[in-house]
Every structure is written in C-alpha cells, then in structure tokens.
Amino acid sequence: MRILIDGMGGDYAPQEIVKGAVKAAAEIDDIIVILGPEDLIREQLDVCRWKGSNIEIMNATEVISNDETPAMSVRKKKDSTIVKGMNMIKNGEGDVLISGGSTGALLAAGLVVLGRLKGIKRPAIAAWFPALAEGGSTLLLDCGANVEAKPEYVYQNGIMGSIFVRAIKGIEEPSVKLLNIGAEAGKGDELHKEAFRMLSDADINFVGNIEGRDVIFGGCDIVVTDGFSGNIFLKSSEGMSLAIMGQFKKKLTEGVVAKAGAMLAYSKIKEIKKVFDYSDVGAAPILGLKGAVLKMHGNSTETEVYYAIKKAIPYVNNDVTGMIAEAVSRNNVLSAKKETGGDEEDK
Amino acid sequence: MRILIDGMGGDYAPQEIVKGAVKAAAEIDDIIVILGPEDLIREQLDVCRWKGSNIEIMNATEVISNDETPAMSVRKKKDSTIVKGMNMIKNGEGDVLISGGSTGALLAAGLVVLGRLKGIKRPAIAAWFPALAEGGSTLLLDCGANVEAKPEYVYQNGIMGSIFVRAIKGIEEPSVKLLNIGAEAGKGDELHKEAFRMLSDADINFVGNIEGRDVIFGGCDIVVTDGFSGNIFLKSSEGMSLAIMGQFKKKLTEGVVAKAGAMLAYSKIKEIKKVFDYSDVGAAPILGLKGAVLKMHGNSTETEVYYAIKKAIPYVNNDVTGMIAEAVSRNNVLSAKKETGGDEEDK
C-alpha cells in the first residue's frame, strides 16, 4: 500500500507531519509518500534521523492556504501538494491521501480530480466523536463538506455512514440518528422533517432524532446531519471541552494545596483527559469521492499524524470507497434520483 | 410589580417552583403570582411554611405538556397556566410571565394572545451563555424560537439583542457576532451570507463571524444565529459540559488517593463549576412579543426559580419591550420591510 500524506498541510507542517510519518513508518511495511518541496521534506527527515526505506518524497512546490478560494487555487496550483496528491490517487500511484490542509481545497480537488461516486450527490466529511457509553465513539457526518443543505444529502449521509461503520467496526446494522432540535419525530425545520422521512424509508437502521446534548453520552453508532449544523455541533463541543479542561489546568496549579491535590488525583485526571481525547481516532474520511481521502485536523501534531497514517491502513484494506459505490448502485432510491438528473446540479 | 410564574411548568413543578418563589418573595416587595390548581399550590406553600403576604395564587386548572402540539393546545386549553398567564399580561394584571413549561406553547400563546411588536418578524429566545473572558457572559439568540430560518430574522436578532444588552448591562454599543462555520467574511450557506450583509448594514456594532469553538472564550457581547443552529450550539455545549463534569465527579471519587486529592483541590474545583454554572443567570427572555415573557429551563429547581424571579425585576424595570418597540419603529430597514407586508407570512 502507498499512503500519500500532504507534508505542507496544517499549522505545524512540515515538522510535525514528517515526525508523525517517521514514527508510523518504523512500525509498518507500507510505503509512506510525503508530498512537499523536496529539499524541505528531506531536511526534516534528516532532523528525525530517518534511515529507513519506506518513506518516499514526492516533490510538490506549491501549497494552497486556508485563505485562498478553493476552486480557483485548485485550478491554478497544479503543483500543489493537494492537487498533485489527488492526481496520484487517480492514477493509481497512491491508495489514500491524508491532508491537514484546507478542507475546502481538499474537497474541491477531490471533486475536480477524482469526482463523486455514481449516485452520490455530495461527499461528506465523517468524523469520530467521543461517546461515554460503551463503544466509545460515534460517527458524525457531515461535519462541514456541504454548507448548503438538502434532505437528500442528509439521507445519503445515513447510507454512507452505515457502510463505513459496518466496514470499520464490524457492526452488522449500525444505528443511525438524526441531529435535531428535539428527540420526538416531527421536530425541526422542513429540511430535517423531510430528511427524517427519507431516513425512515431507507434500508438502514434509522432509530430517530437525537438532540445536541445527548450525542456525547452515546446510544447510537452514527449521527447524521447537514454540514452546517454538523460543523456548529462539532466546534461547540470542542470549544466547551477545551474551555473546561483549560480551567482545570489553570485552577489546579493555583496554590500549593490545590497543586498537591491535583498530584494525588493525577492518574484519574489523566483518565478523564483520555476519554475526551481525539488524537488517536485517526483522520476523518471524505466519503463519496472516487478514491480514499482523509482530512486531518489543522492543528495535528506528531501523535495525530501517526494515528492518521495507522488508521488509514484498515480504511483502505476494507475498501470503503468500493463498498459505498456498490451499495449506492444497489439502492433504488438513489438510482432513481440519479436517472432523473438529480445529482447534476453542482456540476 | 406583579411577577407571574407558571406553577406547573418544568420537570420539578410545582414543588421547586413554589420553593423558589417563597425564597424570592422573602427578599422582595413585589408580588409574585403563582399560576396553577389552587389547592395544589396552596398545599406546597404550606409545605414551605409560607406566612408572608406577597405571594398570590391564580387558579389555573389545565397544564400544557411538552408532548402536545403547541398551537392546538393553546387554542383548546384556555384555563392552562400558560394561556391564562399570557392573558393576564395582556390585561395588565401582570408585568412579566415566567415559565419552565413547553417552549412551543409559550411561544404560540405569546403570538396568539400578545402578538408581535410592530415590525418584528419573529420573536427570539435570548439566553446567557458563560464566557471565560471578562464580562462573564454572552447573549445568544435565537436559541430555538424559530426553526425555519430567514436572514431577516437573524438580522432582527442583532437589533433586539443589542437593545437588550444595552438595557441590562449598560454597554453603550454592545458588539455583535454571527455564529457561522468560519470566522472570515463570506463563509457559510446563502442564509448566513445574506444575514452577514444585512447585519453589516445595520445600525449596530456588528463585528463579523464567530465559530462555535470560540463563543465560550468570549470576545463579544452578543452572538446571533438562526434558531436551529442556536439550539444545536446551546445543547451541544451543555452536553459536553455535563459529560466532562460528570466524569470528574465519577473519577475523583474512585479510590482513596484520588478522593484525597479531590478534597485538597475542592475549593478550586468549586470555582471551576461556578464558571460553567448557568443557575444564577435568570430565565431567557422571549424578545419581540408585546409583553415580557421569560422562559426557564425545564429542569429548573429552587435556585433557578429564585434567580429567574430576581432577574425578572430589572428586566421589567428597564422596559426592554418598550425599547425594542421604539428602536424598531425608528429603524428604516425594518419599517420598509414591514410596509411591504414582509412580516405577515406567519399569520
């Protein structure tokens, strides 16, 4: 397997990307290809004292930043890490592309270079969210690939998410809930009411609405949402988590007594941090593209990069992309919509 | 001042409502009117050994539950605590109505009995959200009054919120941000892009977008949003807060060493809980109605009821309703839209 990683994507690139790649490469037989300016990446590999043989460099001289318009930069910067990586996936020179760079550019390049799977209206970003109940994590999608929402997209998220969780976790009929402003059926705006109806009719284990408050406590395998709400949900939760953990860190180092207390409770506090820690879940797949593309958090460091690479392997081995393509072609509702030209609108 | 409180609204009614009312009544000169079945409320007052003279009971024999369709139950249950309370506000027999009951019923009754202020398209629920930066709280609206979103509603939320924060906090030009999926201008779906443009042109201190992650860290006085996103934001944040605090409570009582540590750090842990504690902020006003209506959380207990009553007093004294009415009539954009019949659609 050839795992491509964007050496220039994210806040701590290229240093942390290369460090994470070196750490992962020492444990696997697969080849890791780092995309970026050759000299710069080689320099970082030297810093890490890399002597192995399963890391390659693919020279890519351009970088697309978060401030650029995705569509335009993808068209113009042919030698950027993202566009070059996407072309390598298309040409069979890589099995999966991982990037911590601009989500917009990654999506735009994915759509332009790889294209959508037949029958899929919009790709979706699927991220793991910590869950306190057994199971330990819930798949949330869409986390912000599509900001303009339609019931069909939310419905397709239910199908893609079900296939993904079945492949990765081995759960035969993963349960799906719809993120909504009330738990009862009939809640929400027209978009979510219609999405509820479509999900109810779908050949998946759809079990109803879930409120934002309840996701963290677990209770279902997949939460589907439109990209706008999903993004608000994910970032609000993250903000609150960061704020509370930050307060504990600050307050428990104020004064000798509290410090002593925190030291005694240290192992337990570490356990709590672990529960809400996202660093080992791996990168978030962009489902619905004709190829395996994973999005890392922009602030990823060595640990996150390491896990992104390690978790990419079962993702490719399980051929999630192929499974989604197959399920969609089997699914009458999607095919019917496809034949009426329903997925042509964003071309 | 006559403060009306729904004795039957919320998970712990009537016991906790009456307890909170008794606690508040002992500290104020204003009259508190508890709505509910007379015998039941009197019984609870006896349990609290109430001997004062500033609590009255208004007999209301019906209750609207959360499971009922708001519009229909408001039409049918004329003797419900919510409909009766709303009529008392209309007839000048009360200055403010506080309820922990069904949000939908409260809104429907507000619209039917009181009606909207001239020029206001939709009322909005405005709640205080904790903020770590100086100031200590951010006003968030709409928190779920309107699930069907339009840019004009979000824009009016900016105006109503500015008037409210000016009145309550005395900030001359409170800063307003728009909850969005990115901080840069031009982010979001069409609805939020248009809302951004309208807010930019408004005669308020609008300073741009804010992401869900950043609200808790403060940095602005008011965050405006559509009701769907606002509800998702609020409940996600609340869920994460409950989950983390719950984990600390659980883990720090596991084993003697951690327990000892937690005891040493006790005062600091209490300080942290205080930062994220919502119980003393008071109830959330429904802005835009022709009368003062406050929504308490459904799980309110004595403390929340007590603060809801205490904080209702400056709310009424500052005549927020009158100020919004005046500002809207002065505002050309709103008036223009009003004249074209733009606010007639939900009649």
In the predicted model, the low-confidence regions of chain A spanning at least 5 consecutive residues are: 332-347
Most extensive chain contact? A-B, 61 and 61 residues
What is the helix fraction of residues of chain A, given as a range? 40-55%
Number of helices of chain A: 13
| Broad structural category of chain A | alpha/beta
* Multimer state: homodimer
User: Major beta sheet of chain A, specifics?
Assistant: 11 strands, mixed
The N- to C-terminal Cα distance of chain A equals 32 Å
User: Average pLDDT value of chain A?
Assistant: 89
What is the CATH third-level topology name of the largest domain in chain A? Answer: Isopropylmalate Dehydrogenase
Q: Which value, in Å, is the CA radius of gyration of chain A?
A: 21 Å
* CATH top level label of the largest domain in chain A: Alpha Beta
